[in-house]
Amino acid sequence: MKEKLLLINSNPVRPLLPPVGLEYVAEHLSKKGYEIDFIEDMKDSSLAGKLENDNYKLILMTIRNFANSTFSREFYLPEIKGLVDLIKSKTSTPVVVGGSGFSGAPEEVLDYLNADFGVAGEGTRGMDILLKKLNNGGTPEKLIRVNDSAYLDEKFERKIINLKKYQENYGATIGVSTKNGCLENCIYCTSRQIAGPGLKLREPDKVVSEIESLAGQGINNIFFTDSVFNIPQTHAKSICDEIIKRDIKIKWHGFISPSPKYFSKELLELMKMSGAFAVEFSPESCSDKMLNSLGKSFRTKDIQKATELCKKNNARVHYSMLFGGPGESYDTVDETFRTMDKFRPDYVNINVGVRIWPHTELAKIAGKQGLIDEKSNLLKPIFYPVSKELIKHINTKISERIYCDKTDTAHYTG
Question: 0.85 cut: is pTM over it?
Answer without folding.
Answer: yes
